[in-house]
Design a protein that fits this description.
Elements lengths: L3 H12 L5 H14 L8 H12 L10 H10 L13
Helix pairs in contact: 2-3
Length: 87
């Protein structure tokens, strides 16, 4: 089942470099085939975000910081950047 929490976790994994753009796009594309969106009140929002993510590997749908930040806001979260020293 795909919820706001699931989508926000995937988007955050992408932003943290734990998930590639190709993997995020693939996941978003497959949600339309394999999964159910819930709850009903969020279906339109989740469809809009997932549709964009499914096309984020094209020039027409760039996955910029502003786009990601807006998606997270719509999902009920805000983004905050922190830096840590590389190992």
């Amino acid at each position: 089942m795909i919820t706001r929490e699931v989508v926000s976790k995937k988007l955050l994994a992408y932003l943290n470099g734990e998930l590639s753009l190709a993997a995020l796009v693939d996941w978003a594309e497959n949600t339309f085939i394999d999964d159910e969106l819930a709850p009903d009140a969020d279906i339109e929002l989740l469809n809009d975000i997932l549709s964009y993510l499914a096309a984020a590997d094209t020039a027409q749908f760039p996955l910029t910081w502003d786009v990601c930040s807006d998606f997270m806001r719509q999902l009920g979260l805000s983004l905050h950047v922190t830096a840590q020293k590389s190992a």
